[in-house]
Amino acid sequence: MDPIPVGRGLADILPESLVAAGAEGVMLNHVEKPLTFEVLAETIKRAEEVGLTTIVCADSEEDASKIATLNPDIIVAEPSSLIGTGVSVGPEYVEAATKCVKDVNPNILVLTAAGIAGGEDVYNTIIAGADATGSSSGVAKAADRAAMVDEMIAACRKAWNERHA
Description:
The protein is an alpha/beta fold. The chain has helices spanning 15-20, 37-49, 61-68, 91-104, 119-127, 137-140, 145-163; strands at residues 25-28, 53-58, 74-77, 109-112.
């Protein structure tokens, strides 16, 4: 999504067009399409104007803290060096990244990801304090994708229940 208003913007993605197409949220600042802080701030503002949930990627704890000042709905704290590797962040990173965000705004949800390869990684991430986690490559690379999704969902539920017991 681009932070443009209705009017000019050939080849740009207008926020209103995403809403018209049925989108309810937008992911911003992924390592594959990074934004400057200034453009990110403008884009989050435009997304909020049209009612889109904002999911913003942060490559480091420092980025997560800075991005939290923009008040997105969700911050995806994932070191880009681990994306797709099957090597997940440890509990220390989950705890630190979550704290960096929550110290700025406790209402922002923190999704910690990168290298999530299976249910055990999902469990460990949620039990360490993340509000959520995610995995693209872990599912895409699985021999049985449906079984992997089931495994990850079960692990998430188990960790969440244990954390909130």
